[in-house]
Amino acid sequence: MSCSKGRQKIEKFFKFGSNSENCIVCIPEVLDGNYGMYVWPCSPVLAQYIWYQRSQLKGKTVLEIGAGTSLPGIVAAKCGATVILSDSSDYPQCLENCAASCGANNLSNITVVGIKWGQFTPELLNLQPVDIILGSDCFFETKDFEDIIVTVAFIMQKRPSTEFWCTYQERSSSRSIEYLLLKWGLECTEIGLETFEADSPTLAESTLPGNHTIHMYIMKKKISSDS
Ligand SMILES: C[S@@+](CC[C@H](N)C(=O)[O-])C[C@H]1O[C@@H](n2cnc3c(N)ncnc32)[C@H](O)[C@@H]1O
What we know:
Strand order of the largest sheet: 6-5-4-7-8-10-9
Largest sheet: 7 strands, mixed
Low-confidence stretches: none
Bound molecules: S-adenosylmethionine
Radius of gyration: 17 Å
């Protein structure tokens, strides 16, 4: 553990894969009240899915939204994707944390940008088309749900084949985004955690997933039957 500018820092290590083929990631966390300074339980689950899909990641352009400590984006970069990390432009310390995760893994070719969900800033408007959007535990405050979907749907307009891979931690069974998907023309498929060996309280040598109920979804632009 180290201390910088009066704030304690710790490093967490995650190991995906086996002894013969693996991906080891170091994530610095800052002991701070901000949500984006810690690795959340959804994050190793999404990163494990990325590791499972690594053969299709090579050469793809991947954007992580609400990245915080950026574990999924870092794994995507280590699997050969061109990665852009983003968090809210309102939280510069989270953007610094995204950059710190790149540094801790010797990844110098990752871009970090401020993208606030629901805001059509130059950073979003000028964003290059991406193949995959990643979102780990972004759906945690219901007030943000539509802004996230609007941002994702906007990015998908640039490349209609773009997929949104996201993990969601169940905090209330009454929450739903079904009406938002319908409103913004998206469809969603749930991916069983057992299909990529993520249905365990321990993952990537981390106990973070614990007993939380986590879901993995892939969202796509709905192709209308009359188009
Ligand atoms: C629960 S944390 C998850 C962080 C990280 N993805 C993980 O799973 O470890 C939610 C993240 O969303 C970011 N965030 C919150 N509101 C946002 C907004 N309006 N636009 C973009 N990012 C936002 C926070 O800064 C934080 O990094």
